[in-house]
TrEMBL record, chains A, B:
Keyword annotations from UniProtKB, A to Z: DNA-binding, Transcription, Transcription regulation
SUPFAM superfamilies: Homeodomain-like, Tetracyclin repressor-like, C-terminal domain
Pfam families: TetR_C_11 (PF16859), TetR_N (PF00440)
Species whose genome carries this gene: Streptomyces griseoviridis
The protein's name in its UniProt record: TetR family transcriptional regulator
Source species taxonomy: Bacteria, Bacillati, Actinomycetota, Actinomycetes, Kitasatosporales
PANTHER family: HTH-TYPE TRANSCRIPTIONAL REGULATOR RUTR, TETR-FAMILY TRANSCRIPTIONAL REGULATOR
Length: 172, 172
């Protein structure tokens, strides 16, 4: 994990070399592949184990839900606009798509936390009449996160206009 | 492509063998890997080229948007509930996550069509006052598709309750 972290920092995801990681860790390449089926799985493990910091979800509560949600979604979009971050999140996505085990761990240690924070912020906004009532805030938060990941997958960075469209959908 | 289609039909995605595909195609394994970097890319190509039929988006227009959208989302969920379909779509997702080129082709030949059909159905519903007005229907449709793909990625099949939550979010 330390060797992978260092190689990620030095070479970036696209040029990451399993050979260099194996050498730095004093192991053979085959040993690496015995534990991780692909470069994606190795990188996902590194993120899941906290060696590469994943973005922490901090959603402000200023009292104005639309502003707070917009700021959070824009920060998410800005994070994904960095090519290296986009590569890491795409690697996690690919690893989760390929492996049930990675998917479950990815969900439990990263996504569920973001989802819960977003749902809590939406709940508080519903109480103040700022987000549409009578709708599952959990479904809303999955729709917001899903829309952002979808944009990452299809290589269409979320614009401010797109983010405002999402906000119109949930805000009252 | 024909050899991949036949091998998919015979063995399914999880047990798909590049060796058997190469043999059936009269080529070497290395030749296959020269063209497709991974099993996911090979399978994605097969779907993109129409050798394995992708689900056709037919969204009814009965005049009742909520019923039509629910039927479409449930059919999507039922499709993904088949393990072989889920494997194929996850393979496409992984291939799109890994490759810019696959991502763009995947979007242009498959996803954009679904998105356009869904947006058109939402537009007609807005005109009848059945879907929330003043919101970008394009953003809504990406949120609905994104939410379903997100559920596939985190291995939580969309329940009827989840689908109703999504419908509450967009319907008036």
């Amino acid at each position: 994990m330390e060797a992978t972290r260092d190689e990620l920092a030095a070479s970036g995801y696209d040029k990451l070399s399993i050979d260099r990681i194996a050498t730095a860790a004093g192991a053979g390449k085959q040993t690496v592949y015995r534990w991780y089926r692909s470069k994606n799985e190795l990188v996902a493990e590194c993120i899941l184990e906290g060696y590469v910091p994943a973005r922490t979800a901090v959603i402000a509560d200023s009292g104005e839900a639309r502003d707070d949600l917009r700021a959070w979604l824009r920060a998410f979009a800005d994070f994904l606009a960095e090519p290296e971050n986009a590569s890491l999140i795409r690697a996690c996505t690919a690893a989760a798509a390929e492996s049930d085990e990675v998917a479950v761990r990815f969900y439990e240690s990263l996504t569920a936390t973001n989802e819960a924070a977003l749902t809590a912020r939406l709940d508080s906004a519903v109480r103040r009449g700022q987000v549409r009532a009578g709708t599952s805030t959990a479904a809303m938060s999955e729709a917001l996160i899903g829309a952002m990941l979808y944009r990452l997958l299809v290589r269409q960075p979320p614009t401010d206009e797109f983010i405002d469209g999402l906000l119109d959908m949930v805000c009252d």
